[in-house]
Amino acid sequence: MSASILVPGSRKGADSMQAAAVKGRSLWDDARRRLLRNKMAVTGMVVLAILVVLAVVGPYLAPYAYDAVNKNDVWMGPGQNGHLLGTDSLGRDQLARLLMGLRVSLAIGLVATVVSLIIGVAWGAVAGFVGGRVDEAMMRFVDVLYSLPFIFFVILLMVTFGSNIILIFVAIGAVEWLTMSRIVRGQTLTLKHKEFVEAARAMGLGRGAIIARHIVPNLLGPVVVYVTLTIPAVILAESFLSFLGLGVQPPMASLGTLIANGAQDMELAPWLLVFPSLVMVVTLMSFNFIGDGLRDAIDPKDR
Amino acid sequence: MFRFIGRRLLVAIPTLFLVITAAFFMMRAAPGGPFDMDRKLSPEILKNVEAKYGLDKPLAVQYVDYLADVVRGDLGPSLKYRDKSVLQILKENYKPSLIIGLSAITIAALMGVGLGVLAALRQNRSVDYGVMTVAILGVCIPTFVTAPLLVLGIASKLGWLPTAGWNDGALPNLVLPVIVLALPQIAIISRLTRAGMIEVLHSNYIRTARAKGLPESRIVGKHALRAALLPLVSYLGPACAGLITGSLVVERIFNLPGLGKFFVTSALQRDYTVVMGMVIFYAGLILFLNLVADLLYAALDPRVRLA
């Protein structure tokens, strides 16, 4: 059911989660228990943990550098000459490149998600809390952005400023915040009439302080769920750009560039395509399992 | 009804205007120009060429000129493809994109709804788990992975289908691109349908229909399906955006003469007018589909009143 939450117009995800976050501490214990009982989610977490360790530590342990060109070992198949996953047309060790690519893709997923998180939470919280005309204008703006072919703007951005990694973070993050802002706004609307917000206001706290200290922390539940679903979306977007030759530039690698290169040479060296594709799919799946599991755990009604 | 359409159009026009403006200035902010080549043009020639296309005027003037042209329905000449207007390029290349896109979305809708209903009716049984596994795989395996893998397996190794090319839209050439494009949509649509169907089947009016003694096929096919399809209708806009994104990849891998390749190449070559034409075309398409989705939504859901 992860799709239902991503779809504009379908507010079910946002609404049904509103009940969850406000019940207080015991909810999180409950949620943790439910999450750990979910085999898919636990599998996802274990696999993801392994992938993260590999991405962080792997490049240091790999016997070759990811960008080391080796003229004597061109087009090695998997296992030949000590290259566990073979080599490419320049004799670069694919294991080392794959580990590096995984690291880059995960890093982009994380950073761009944080960017989208900051924009989305700020936008949604302000719109929901201030309400009235401001709310209407801000959400109208989101609606308009929703109806645009966004990938085109990302492509234009990459062409305009040249592809560097920071820009990839910002561009993708700036695209992915829309759904987040909708979820956060829905949550905020229900939160702002709660007693503790009124108490804070009675004590003379300003609007900004109330949003930052009282509203945002209480949004955590649904936001966490959506974050775990945004990360794979971001990884996908980056790989897509890399596939079109607009993302991470060689010799640096990401899962997307590795798949793109593999696709070019797949007749000659299918291993160049198969291994990065496999890692990509496993990564995306583990994130999706965790996201689905978290949603079910935090919002048992929706199962 | 007409007032509703009118109001939506009033929103669509400023949106389109915003898109054009943003794309125009982003494109112009990019370093380099359409006439940078390996062999540098002499300054005099460059000046003449730029004057011919009005590129020597101040940017603000060019912007206003361009807007005026667009309002008249003239998207200008291509700066790279000699003697072709942007409209001509759109006209000559839209067919493969359209055929592939339409076939993919039709197949995705039929299969997705079918599978989703099946899974909902057999909730928590093996059919359900099977469909949901396929759905998760479909979401997690991106087009740029399925496309090369299918080409490698089915076209290259087994030789059942051509690896690439358009061949005037011959059926064997269409199969793989359409499958690749449809797969993720099938996954999303079947999940949406299943979720909607399960919720609807528990609602009171379905219980009423059962109590009346209606046959199950009628309950599912008429009463439940209609309500369960509502979330799908609002997915139409994003689905179209997803298809366009996917077609960029698919057209590249299968080497199809569609519109997709023009966007990336033209952007890289700074062919300003062609890029703008593509942006306007696709943004217009998506806005139009969103309007259609709103109308469909109202037609399906009696609670929504168009005003």
Q: What does it look like?
A:
The complex is a heterodimer of chains A (303) and B (307). Chain A has 303 residues and is mostly helical. Chain A has one domain: MetI-like (MetI-like fold), CATH 1.10.3720.10. Chain A is elongated. Chain A has 14 helices and no strands. Chain A has helices spanning 2-6, 12-21, 25-37, 39-61, 94-130, 132-146, 150-161, 165-175, 177-191, 195-202, 207-218, 220-243, 255-264, 271-298. Mean pLDDT of chain A is 79; it is low at 1-16. In chain A, α12 (220-243) runs parallel beside α13 (255-264). Chain A is 74% helix and 0% strand. The longest helix of chain A is centred in the middle third of the chain and has 37 residues, at 94-130. Chain B is an all-alpha fold and 307 residues long. Chain B folds into 2 domains: 2-71, no CATH class; 89-300, MetI-like fold. In chain B, 75% of the residues lie in helices and 0% in strands. Chain B has helices at residues 2-29, 43-52, 59-71, 86-121, 126-140, 143-157, 171-201, 204-211, 216-228, 230-253, 260-268, 272-300. In chain B, α10 runs antiparallel to α12 (272-300) and α11 packs antiparallel against α12. Chains A and B meet through α1, α7, α12, α13 and α14 of A and α1, α5, α6, α7 and α10 of B.
